[in-house]
Every structure is written in C-alpha cells, then in structure tokens.
Amino acid sequence: MITNMSTISLIDKAATPVNHSFGPASRVAENTARWQDREHNSGIAAGFSTYSLTLREPTATGGVYRVKATLAIPKLDLTVPAVPKVLGVARVNCEFIFPDVMSDQDRKNITKMFHDSLTQDSASAVGDNIAGITLPY
After folding, report:
1. CB of 73 within 8 A of CB of 49?
2. Extents of the domains making up the chain
3. HSE of 42, CA atoms in CB hemisphere, 13 A
4. What is the CATH number of domain 8-100?
C-alpha cells in the first residue's frame, strides 16, 4: 500500500520487458493522486504516460466508496522531432464500487481476483483477449 506519494514501477510485456517509472505528479483535483512516466516518448510532455487514482467516499449512510484507477499511454509520431504529434492514447479506466458494509478483506479479495483475471498465466485469464481484441469462444 502506498501511504504517501512515491514512484510506481510498472513493467510492460515487451519481448524484453521495460520498466516504466511513474513519479508523483501535480494533483489535478481533490481526492486524486497522479503519477507520470516522463522518461519515455523522448521526454515530450504530450507523450507522458499518466496513472491516476481517485477516491470518492459515501455521501450518506449505506452509500458506496468509488475508487477509480486510470492509466493513459500516448503514442507519438516522432518522425519530425521538432513537431511531435499524438497519434492516439491507449487508456484503461477501472472503477471499483464498494458498498460501505464491505470489510477491508472483502475489498482486498475482489481487487486480487480482478488482478488475476487479467494477469494469471493460465487459460482462464482474459488479459491477452483484451490486448488481442478478441472474445473467448
């Protein structure tokens, strides 16, 4: 658990995996933490990959917590170095909705199960389906 803003290291799935270090970045809104990978895409601001985490607490008894994690990775055209162009942005928006009656262990369980659904090295993970843009059959 990150208790204060520190660097997040994420490893991609390239043939030779690359470590992407996301350092703390400026806060863009209340209840939002943000990190950026400023090392890749030639250090061009438009190409900074960004990870953010937002927390909304219940507004009434019996309400829900909403935790949203977002990862955005731009693709740049650097053929003309003086004029980099954003070709597109790959983005993941993941929202966890927890009724306030759920325990810390309940929240850990669903978070781990979701993680495993994407990353397990088995036929039951859907991460490669998502990357390959295919549904299981």
Report:
1. yes
2. 8-100, 103-137
3. 14
4. 3.30.380.10
Distance CA 33, CA 4 (A): 10
Contact 13, 31 (CB under 8 A): no
> pLDDT, tens digit, for every residue of 16-51?
999 999 999 977 778 899 999 998 877 888 899 999
- Classify residue 69 as exposed, middle or buried by CB count within 10 Å of its CB (0-12, 13-18, 19+): middle
Q: Which three-class secondary structure string do you get for 88-135?
A: EEEEEEEEEEEECCCCHHHHHHHHHHHHHHHHCCCCCCCHHHHHHCCC
What is the model's pTM?
0.86
Closest CA to 44 of 94, 79, 84: 84
Q: In angstroms, rounded to a whole number, what is the distance separating the alpha carbons of residues 35 and 49? A: 8
